[in-house]
Every structure is written in C-alpha cells, then in structure tokens.
TrEMBL record:
Gene3D superfamilies: NADH-ubiquinone/plastoquinone oxidoreductase chain 6, subunit NuoJ. Residues 701-789 form the MrpA C-terminal/MbhE domain. It is a multi-pass membrane protein. The gene is phaA2. Residues 132-416 form the NADH:quinone oxidoreductase/Mrp antiporter transmembrane domain. The lineage of its organism: Bacteria, Pseudomonadati, Pseudomonadota, Alphaproteobacteria, Hyphomicrobiales. It comes from Devosia pacifica. This is Na(+)/H(+) antiporter subunit A.
Length: 803
C-alpha cells in the first residue's frame, strides 16, 4: 500500500502567498497590530504540521500531488517526511515570532504592510522549497526565495548600499539557480523521473555513471551559492543591509539553509563517494574557519552574527560530507540549535539598535539593568552558541565529536571542528556579554527595554534552546531520528544524552572547546586588531572582486552591443541574408544534409531533383509575368518603379496559388501585395529620399551575389524536399479532426484560426503594429520652415521672461 495522500499540505506552501497579498490591506486597517494578526498564518501552519509528527515518527511519508502540466506528466508534488517536516516546522515556528517582531520593529513605517507582505512571500517560498518533491517545483520555489530576498534586502531602496547588496545576492543565487535547473534536467534524463523520492528509491546507480561528476558539480554550485560557501560567501554579510527582521529570518531558518537542505535531500543519491566527501569536507571546513575568523574582526553586532552564520553553514556542509550516522544526527540537531540561538541573537541586535541607537559592540555596555529581559535572552542564546550542557547545541556538539570518533579521529577534521566551534563560542560570549555587562556606556538613545513584540521572540527562542533539550529521549526519537533517517535512507536509533561522561574523549573535546572559546573572548580586541592588519596588508576581498567582475560584465556588454547594434541597416541585412544563405546551402552540399533531405536514389544526381518543369501554356504565362517583374525590378531606374515591379511578382505568385486550387491564399496574397505597394508608395511620397539608390559597383555585386545564393538555396531546398517521400501524418490529422474538433470544413481556415490561433493572432499584431508605426511616421512629418520653438519655462522665473 502506498503512502497516505493529504492534498491539504499543498496549502502550507500556498497560504503564505495569500497572506502576502492581504498584508498591506490588513496593515491599513489595524496599523501596527498587523504583525500579530498575520502571525496567525505561520502559527496555524506550525500547528498543522505538528499533527504529522506522530505518523512521521512511525516511518510514514505523506504526499500531496496537484496536476501541473498533464501533457508532460508533471505534477506539483509535495512530500512530508522527517527532513521536510523538521525544516517546515522550524520555518513556520520561527517565522511566527519574526512576523510579530517585524510588526513591532517597523511600527509606524509607511511601507510596513508591503514589508510584511514580502516576509510572508519569503516564508511561503521557503516552505514550498522544503516540501516540494518534484524537482521543477523545487527549482520554482528556489528562485522565489531569491526574488523575495532581493525585495527584502533592497527594501530601503533609497540607499545605494541596500540596492547593491540586493543585486549581489540576486546575481549569485540566481547563478546557482541555473545550475540547479540544469542538474534537475540532467537528473531527470538519467533517472526518468522528476520526483526526488522516486529517484532515491529507484535503481539509478549514479555514482558509477560517467556524468556523475557533472551532476554533482551542478548541485554543489546550487547549494554553495545559496548557503554562502567559500568562495561564494561574500554576499551574505552584505545582505545585512536588510532590516533586522529579514536578517533574523534569512540567517536562521530560511534562504541560506536551502543549500543545506538540498545537500541533505540529495545525499542518498549523490553521497557516499570519495568525491562527495572530499568536496563537502573541504569547502565546508574552509567556510567554517573563514567565517569564524571573519566574525572576530567585526564590531557591528549584525556583521558579527552574519559571519558566524557563514561559519555555521560551513559546519553543516562539513557534517553532511562526513556522512556517517553520528555526523548526520549532529547536522540535524545543530540545524535546530543554530536556528534557535541565531534568530534570537539577531532579534536582540535589532532590539539593542532600536532602543539604544547603535549596534557597535565597542560603543555598548552596562545595558543589563535597563534591558533585563533582553539580557536574560542574550545569556540563553550565548550559552547555546558556546554549546554548554542542557542546551540543544550541546547535544549537537557531542554528536559532532562522536562523528569524529566514528571516523577515526581524522586530524584535520578534528582540529577544524574544534577550532571552529571555539571561535563561534567566543563570538557568542562577546555578543551576549559585552553589550550588557561592564561599565555603563552612553548610547545615542536612552536605552530601555523593548516592547513585547520585540522581546517575545528572543525570550521564547532562548528558553526553547534549553527546554527542547531537556526531554532528550523525546527530542531524539521524535525529531532527530526521523530527519536523520530520511537523509541516510535507512532507520537509525537515537543515542542523545545530557549525561556527562568524564571518561569519554568527547567530553574532554567539549571542555577544550569551551576553554578555547573563553581564551579567544579574553583576547578578542587584540585578535581583532591583528586580523584587520592582515586584511590591510592583503588589500583584496572577494567583495571587491565581484565589483570588478560586474564592471567588466557591463563594459563588455556595452562593447558587444555597440559592435552588433551599430545602427547601419545595410550591414544588418547583409548579415541576416548571408546567414540565411549559409543555413540553406551548407546542408545541401553536406553529405549528411543530403542524406537527410534527399531520397537515396537522388544522391549524386541533381537532375533527379532539379529538372525542367512540364508546364501548361497558362502556367508559362504566369511564370513569364514573374520573370518580367523580376527583370523590371533589377533594371528599375528609381525606387517607385522598383516597388511597382515587386508588386508584379507578387501578383504572379497569387495567380499560381489560384491555379493550384488555393483561392483563399491567392486572395490573401493579392491583398498583401496591394497594401504593400500602396503603403510603400505613400511612404516614398512623404520621405525625402533620392530617386535612385546610388551604390558602388562592389556593393551591388555583393548584394546581388547574396540574393542569388539565397534564391538558389530556397529553390533547391524546396525541390529537394518535394523529391523526398511525403509524410502525410500531419495532413491526415487535420483531415480527421477538422470537423469533429474545430467544426470547420475549410481546413486551411481551421488551421489558421484554431490550430494556429495564437500564431495568427501574433501575425495580425505584427501587421497592426507596423501599420500604426507607418501611420505615425506619415502623420509625424511636419514642415520645418516657419516652425516656432518655444523655450521651456524656467521654474525660478515666475514671470516667464526669456533670458
């Protein structure tokens, strides 16, 4: 029996988009309370998803499928298993608190409703991404996260820094989106399915396929751009130009976690190889240390937290690459721990900035008495970031070190993980302690505790970081095991524990991590100065390299545009018709082309294809009229005679249609020729052009040669096609369906109006547009002589006196 189907889970991804549309209307009626009202949507989603915990814990997978593109057998399919449920509940749960926070943070802002709408769309895109089973649906939501984050990062669009950061994030993540699309299409070609669940349980042995490296590279590029892995990490700190609610959501549970989710989801298909392990361990480890050291250099609270997000993402990627059971369990637990303390810390940074007027850690101190609730929330987030016992982060750290033990204590991986965790802990201590303890520092604003909407989120998340860890058996069995099992593709058992085993090397590694974190915190100022001196010495950054790349791209595009679009119509026509001649003649003179176009008996004997026609007398008359028109066109002494001669050829073609039983087509041709001659003649009488086209002999020779080649190519191609076997399948289809489906006996009309309806509509639109352009050109012509030009009025000159 297949998995249960619940179409209602599709609403989880679609409901936030509906709320996004309603957000400005809600804000207009209720004002600053809009955040509390809109938060009902993600809260309801969270509670709805919670109802799936029990069946997912028992190994069930719940699906929903909506018809999307039936002719291509595409369905908008969604899936809830342990992994998608963990991500979706984290997104909706933290999203509830951040929507409330955003309503309070932007209270009184003229565009608060629009901002809340963008936030809800951002949430909907991320929920759709983690619940999607179809790879094309996943790509669609993947790109929606990029678009919605672009609007959020650039929300303060009047600031150049915000616009630049939004553009940078969009360019880099969209580059990864293209890689994801190519990877999904290639995966579909190899597996025959668009659904990731079907690919995971199928018989595709991708690791043995010659294209494995290419598929892996495409998915890694997609994941690394989204999750800010080195060297594509630099867009994430710049995204701090967004309002703080965006930073809190983006860094904890949404966009940057999309790459981690993709790697985890595709691990059963792409993982388990040396290439997978080496690449993820290498890039993840470098990203971990790079972000951790970069965080030490910062003094802005949001920048410190942003750099630690880069480090944490590197740690998650490193754990996925390590791949053993403990590493995947650590990845799951650390994802939840990081979401709790990072969202709380970012919201606290916003509270401090909102109520004290600055985020500079060197300009803060002694806020604990003025902001006691924020201080307690900061301490709870800090001990989680350090990974002290009784927190979810402690369980994650223990699982990380257990993974190292299972892996044989790889020296590089052990040093990287311990050092990275220690540096993250040092930053956590600094953010939790520096602003609140020590001597009171005068701040730009009189510091005081924030309103309920601002402090509720950090307080709840700080408590959750401890409260979720205390029922360790429940947390391990109902949360960690289903998610880790979904990643590994096999059922595992939970061994999470808060007990301290002083004989275990894992605890001693944790103690070493805590001591290193404390030591790094004590020398934080000196470390910051040393790291900044190194930066000044190097004088290079990936962010600056991006600017150079974009500058070169824009300059190159401008040069290419000037080269291709120089404004000389004559050159355009020469290029177009030369390309046409090549496209016609190269296949004809190529053996492969001849085999494709000509019947075998005609190969090498052009007389079988191009022979003297057997025409009747009246057909010869029509051909003679066409030849007379051609000769008249070539020898015409002025443009007006050439236009009339061209009309003679058109009339000859219309007569051929009439003789061969296509009166409607003949009538159309007659109308086109009459209109063409009339319109061109009218234009010629209104434009100031020379009577003759004075061209050098070499230009005339060039154009004549190209014209002859094009004419010969068209004639030879048509004759070659006619000489081949006629495939009547399309004609038979029209004959069989014209009356029962389109209710028309005139098959030509049915084809134009029904089968090619949009094509015909497009042709009509083109003709109409051309007619309007010609009409505007004719009516717009005005006499220059005697025209009076009135200078614009000077706004500073109220009298309107000419200067």
């Amino acid at each position: 029996m297949g998995p249960p189907i619940d179409v209602s889970i599709a609403l989880v991804a679609l409901a936030p988009f509906l709320a996004a549309v309603m957000a400005p209307i809600v804000q207009r009626f209720v004002g600053s309370a809009a955040g509390w009202i809109l938060a009902v949507i993600p809260a309801s989603i969270f509670l709805f998803l919670a109802s799936f915990i029990e069946p997912v814990t028992h190994g069930e997978v719940v699906r929903a499928s909506l018809s999307w593109v039936p002719i291509q057998q595409l369905s908008l399919s969604f899936l809830i298993d342990g992994l998608s449920l963990m991500f979706a509940m984290t997104i909706s749960g933290i999203g509830t608190l951040i929507i409330i926070y955003a309503g309070a943070y932007l209270a009184g802002h003229e565009h608060q409703g629009r901002f809340l709408g963008f936030m809800m769309a951002f949430m909907g895109a991320m929920l759709g991404l983690v619940l999607a089973d179809n790879m094309l649906a996943l790509f669609t939501f993947w790109e929606l996260t990029s678009v919605s984050s672009f609007m959020l990062i650039g929300f303060d669009h009047y600031r150049q820094a915000a616009r630049r950061a939004a553009t940078q994030a969009l360019v880099i993540t969209n580059f990864g989106g293209l890689a994801l699309l190519f990877g999904a299409v290639l995966m579909h070609q190899l597996s025959g399915s668009w659904d990731m669940s079907a690919i995971r349980v199928g018989d595709l042995q991708l690791d043995a396929h010659p294209l494995y490296g290419l598929v892996l590279a495409l998915f890694l590029i997609a994941a690394f751009t989204k999750s800010a892995q080195f060297p594509l990490h630099f867009w994430l700190p710049n995204a701090m130009e967004a309002p703080t609610p965006v930073s809190a959501f983006l860094h904890s549970a949404t966009m940057v976690q999309a790459g981690v989710y993709l790697l985890a989801r595709m691990s059963p298909v792409l993982g388990g190889t040396d290439m997978w392990t080496v690449l993820l361990m290498s890039f993840g480890g470098v990203t971990l240390l790079w972000g951790a050291f970069a965080a030490l250099k910062q003094t802005d609270l949001k920048q410190m937290l942003a750099q630690t997000t880069i480090a944490s993402l590197g740690l998650l990627v490193m754990l996925i690459g390590y791949g053993n059971e403990a590493a995947i369990a650590a990845m799951v637990v650390y994802f939840i721990a990081h979401a709790f303390y990072k969202a709380g810390f970012f919201m606290l940074a916003g509270v401090i900035d909102h109520e004290a007027g600055t985020r500079e850690i060197t300009a803060l101190g002694g806020l604990a008495r003025a902001m006691p609730v924020s201080f307690v929330a900061a301490v709870l987030a800090g001990i989680a970031m350090v990974g002290l016992p009784l927190t979810v982060a402690y369980l994650a750290k223990e699982e990380m070190y257990l993974a190292l033990q299972y892996g044989g204590w790889n020296l590089v991986a052990t040093v990287t993980m311990v050092l990275g965790n220690a540096l993250l802990g040092a930053v956590g201590i600094a953010v939790a302690v520096k602003p609140f303890l020590g001597p009171k520092v005068e701040t730009p604003k009189h510091a005081h505790e924030g309103p309920l909407g601002l402090i509720a989120g950090p307080a709840i998340l700080g408590i959750a970081g401890v409260a979720v860890a205390l029922p360790t058996d429940w947390f391990g069995h109902d949360v960690m095991v289903p998610a880790a099992s979904a990643i590994l593709g096999e059922q595992i058992e939970s061994h999470l524990t808060l007990a301290l085993n002083f004989t275990s090397p894992l605890l001693w590694l944790s103690i070493a991590t805590w001591l290193l974190a404390l030591g790094a915190f004590l020398v934080l100022s000196r470390a910051r100065s040393a790291l900044r001196r190194i930066d000044d010495t190097v004088g290079y950054s990936f962010d600056a390299a991006f600017d150079v790349f974009m500058f070169g791209l824009i300059r190159g595009a401008g040069a290419l545009t000037r080269f291709l679009h120089h404004g000389r119509l004559e050159i355009y026509l020469v290029v177009v018709f030369t390309g046409m001649a090549l496209a016609l003649l190269v296949p004809l003179f190529s053996m492969n082309g001849l085999e494709a176009l000509m019947p075998p008996e005609a190969l090498g004997d052009w007389r079988a294809v191009i022979s003297w026609p057997d025409l009747t007398s009246y057909e010869w008359v029509v051909v003679s009229i066409a030849v007379i028109g051609l000769v008249a066109l070539v020898v015409a002494q002025n443009r007006l005679v050439a236009i009339l001669s061209l009309g003679v050829q058109g009339v000859a073609v219309a007569m051929l249609f009439l003789l061969f039983g296509a009166p409607d087509l003949s009538f159309t041709q007659f109308m086109v020729e009459i209109l063409s001659v009339v319109i061109l003649t009218l234009v010629m009488t209104r434009l100031r052009l020379d009577e003759r086209d004075h061209r050098p002999f070499e230009d005339a020779l060039r154009d004549g040669t190209i014209a002859l080649l094009c004419g010969f190519g068209v004639a030879a191609t048509l004759m070659t096609i006619i000489a081949g076997n006629f495939d009547s399948s399309l004609a038979d289809f029209f004959l069989e369906t014209s009356v029962p489906i389109a209710h028309g006996h005139n098959i030509v009309n049915v084809i134009l109006v029904d089968y090619r309806g949009f094509d015909t509509l497009g042709e009509i639109a083109v003709v109409m547009t051309a007619g309007l352009a010609i009409l505007a050109l004719i009516r717009g012509r005005r006499s220059v002589a005697g025209t009076t030009i009135t200078p614009p009025r000077d706004p500073a000159n109220s009298e309107g006196v000419k200067g």
